[in-house]
Amino acid sequence: MSKSKNGVVSTLIVILSLLFLSPIYIMLVNSFKTRSELYENVLALPGSFSFEYYSGAMQKMNFLTVFGNSLYVTIATVIFVIVLASMTAWMLVRRDNVMSKIIFFSFVATMLIPFQTLMMPLMQVMDWIRTYLHLPMLNTHEGLIFMNIGFHAGIAVFLYHGFIKSIPIALEEAAVLDGCSTFGVFWRIVFPLLTSITVTVAILDVIASWNDYLLPSLVLSDKGLRTIQLSTFYFFGEFTIVWNQAMAGLTLTIIPVVIFYAFAQKYIIKGIAAGAVK
Amino acid sequence: MKKKWAFVLLSVMLVVLSACGSNGNNKTTNEGATNGGNQGEKQAKITLFQSKVEIAESLENLVKKYKDETGNEVEVWGSAGDSYITQLQTKLAANEGPTIFSVQPGAEAEKFASYYHDMSNESYAKYISPNMALEHDGKVVGVPIGVEGFGLVYNKALYDPATVKDTAGLVSALEKFKADGVNGLSLSQEAYFLIGHIINTPFALQEDPIAFVEQVNKGEVKLSEVPAFQEFAKVLEAIRANSINPMEVTYDTQMGDLATGKTAIVHQGNWSYGMLADYDEMEVGMAPLPILGNDKLAVDIPAGWVINNKASEEQITAANAFLEWLYTSETGKNTIVNDFGFIPAVTTIEPTGLDPLSQQVFDATQAGNTIPWALNYFPQGIIVNDLAPLTSEFFLNASMTPEQYLEKLSEVWVKAAK
Amino acid sequence: MNKNSKLWYCIFTMPLYLIFLIVVVIPFLIGIYYSFINWDGIPSNPKVFVGFDNYATLFQDERFLTSAWNTIKFTVFALISVNLLGLIFALIVTSGFKSSNLARTLLFMPNLIGGLILGYIWRFIFTDGFKQIGATTGIDSIFFNWLIDPNYALFALVIVFTWQMAGYTMVIYIAGIQGISDEVMEAAKVDGANLWYRMTKIVFPLLMPSFTICLFLTLSGAFKIYDVNLSLTNGGPIHSTELFAMNIFNEIFGYGNYGLGQAKAIVFFVIVALVTLTQVVITKRREVQM
């Protein structure tokens, strides 16, 4: 492919991608407008770029606290999910007996259940655990993390399961012959080979955890525990939405995830490249 | 061998995390339950959960002041209006309910009745204006947050209600507006603003609105044969023929159009005055919907605050103290009127500085010149789930006649009431 | 050795499975029990056992049946558009153009936005934005408010869902495409195979595992859709976009018919489980192992 052709097509691709992102443009542009400007013209650039809606939004949302809360819950969830799901999926693939099939099937089947139908019984189960086992499952971050793991398990196991199949078992057998324990085989041989899918699972799980509204809204009650999504409720009134502030607040909730993604996807490339070289 | 330790470490982490969590939780509940010690009268921390997002910020400021003045803590929970009931219900079911929460009188209040603390003998119960308390089984269970009223909110420069005394008058006024290029009467697409409020009038004009609703529930009366409803359907038809389709209008644009003179009248309540603040000053008033010559505004309490009887003794005491303070202290009273913008429904407050719409509603209440909110007694969920879709169908489908609308209305009503 | 390996099996799988049982399976089973009762959701109010009454009722519930049909329509359209777009994006991004990395970041971004928020933004676009574009450009046969037209509202939902999920499937297809060794592609080119041939005879079959995954993910995502449904259309106009999860939610919390809502959920779950199971079996059979 000639260099200039490459250049032209490249630019075209970028332009199309930006067009694809136009809703985000609209969101950004309107976070700087006053309410009557919004009413006048939705698509135009604002008269003046004032950050007052951002600072107002940050104050209302109690930004630093909720950001920290979301960060804690998300990171803890993702770490547990990655570790536990990869372990589980590996064992399910390597010992493909009836039990494994049943377990895998149950993970996958429950991915189809809408959360709304589990809400009430789940809360009651958690309440029961709290009362009889004295483990604080409700109104704590740890309880939320516990439940997140349960809900994100299905898709993580599903993704890992598919990819582990492509790892030749010969490598593991060789390691066992060399005297490696089961743990050793998994952590030293298999897990490093799973890097690209791990990063994928991490990205998807970070998004799911960070953006979750419904479950945290039911589990967490104390103000100080709120996650960043819960704090955006301020802008969504019963009948009216203060659009300019809402957009500012929403932009704030998105920025961390975007940064994480931009950073993380470099590792997909690295992981994929390393795998290809092998 | 190393990896075995890693696994052990992992499980220990899990246990430690839950232990940490439990420590943290214990601390909060301990703090709450401690009575004696600090400031002599320090009470348990209580939680407040209510659905009006518009007052959320003012409420937070209020509880801050409460803490400064009395040293007692109230924590405000928040939710977006739609999910309020879901969260409330789920939390109550998991024994995580708030100490004080708000409920709408009628079906909603009935549903949660088993959670209400009996307020009949509390100190503040006597401040409640006559007939305004939330009652159940003859006991006072909730204090009204205020009164609200709705009707035709109009631009004084474009409309004079004195000239329109009945449905026919309203219809011809709308036709004239259309001829003049002004949007006559604007409804908005949100369920309550589309149909929930405006349909209240024909119900409220019946002899006994509650009994009437019961009859409609059972299908014992056909709405197409009731005069108030026939006129009501004519009004809807006039709106359809002469004004912008309500399905294209949101609350924001509805009020924006009123403020900029594009619309003459909107069917709204005194709360909507706050929406005009972003625009230039204008003169607005509230007029009754003149079906069957009605000349009264619809006024009632939109919600009441109740105390959760599953809360601890100390929390209930603290909740009572908070409510007492709310209605008697200068700070509390000022906040209700000025920050919340509520028209008070308690005798301890003399409202001053109300906005024009709220003032009109207050005057009407004092003079006893009002019709009630029959809509509080509609079957649960009917406005959002059934009335709104049916009415939007009416506005989107020009071939549906008013009679057909009323017939369908009766059908849909009976189904929803099951 | 046998006892030891059984132990390892448990150590590796049980922690996650236990959590999963407590958080998902047990509430689900409780939910099944609840589908046989009449209850309004408040613990202090009575639960009345009614056996299969709820199930009988739901099959006569017109609105539920309409909602099921709409959900099926939506899912089919969404399945096609999301995967098509995702695949195209993945192919573009792996074709070696200079801007590939940037494009991949940009195209994935919509997926970073939570469902509720996404719906609100697009609602804004369809209501105010479209109206404005229609007014200025005059092409108001396309640029009107889709959300108040019962025929177009469902398509609006498809568009928004596609916008959100295309990047998601793109990522998975990228991983799949990257997994196709270059040697195979080079060999094909050397043998004189053109683009179309390479695509259909080599790339697609080798992408089957990715297809399995993506089809399954879009199926389950589309069918469970709630957040975007709520904030974009709230089921309107006239219930034309009241998809399945919303119908159940309204039944439980709007009308207070807890048992009936649960019964609906079970029924639909069974149907969808069957459909996706079939899909997975079919596509897995066509997977080519390397």
Keywords:
heterotrimer; A: 278 residues; mainly alpha; globular; disordered C terminus; B: 418 residues; alpha/beta; six-stranded mixed β-sheet; 12 strands; 45% helix; 13% strand; disordered N terminus
Structure description:
The complex is a heterotrimer of chains A (278), B (418) and C (290). Chain A has 278 residues and is an all-alpha fold. Helices cover 73% and strands 0% of the residues of chain A. Chain A has 13 helices and no strands. Chain A has helices spanning 3-20, 22-30, 35-40, 52-61, 63-94, 98-109, 119-132, 141-164, 169-177, 182-193, 195-211, 214-219, 243-277. In chain A, helix 5 (63-94) runs antiparallel to helix 6 and helix 6 packs across helix 8. The longest helix of chain A is centred in the C-terminal third of the chain and has 35 residues, at 243-277. The relative contact order of chain A is 0.13. Chain B contains 15 helices and twelve strands. In chain B, the strands form two sheets. Chain B has a six-stranded mixed beta sheet with strand order 2-1-3-11-5-4. In chain B, strands 6, 7, 8, 9, 10 and 12 form a six-stranded mixed beta sheet that branches. In chain B, helix 2 links the parallel strand 1 (46-49) and strand 2 (74-77). Chain B is globular and about 65 Å long. The termini of chain B are far apart. Chain C has helices at 2-34, 53-60, 62-93, 100-108, 115-137, 150-178, 182-190, 195-206, 208-224, 227-232, 244-254, 258-285, and strands at 37-38, 48-49. In chain C, strands 1-2 form a two-stranded antiparallel sheet.
Number of strands of chain C: 2
Low-confidence stretches of chain A: 271-278
Mean pLDDT of chain C: 81
Major beta-sheet overview of chain A:
none
Overall pLDDT of chain A, averaged?
A: 79
Assign the structural class of chain A, choosing from mainly alpha, mainly beta, alpha/beta, alpha+beta, or little secondary structure.
mainly alpha
Beta fraction of chain C = under 5%
Write the element-wise H/E pattern of chain C from the N-terminal end onward: HEEHHHHHHHHHHH
Strand order of the largest sheet of chain C: 1-2
Q: Please count the beta strands of chain A (DSSP E, at least 2 residues each).
A: 0
Proportion of residues in helical segments of chain C:
over 70%
Report the uncertain regions of chain C: none
Q: Per the principal axes of the C-alpha atoms, what is the gross shape of chain C? A: globular
What kind of assembly state do the chains in view correspond to?
heterotrimer
Question: How far is the first residue's CA from the last residue's CA of chain A?
Answer: 27 Å
* Helix-strand makeup class of chain C: mainly alpha
Largest interface: A-C, 93 and 88 residues
Radius of gyration of chain C in whole Å, from Cα? 23 Å
Strand content of chain A: under 5%
- Main sheet specs of chain C: 2 strands, antiparallel
H/E element order of chain A:
HHHHHHHHHHHHH
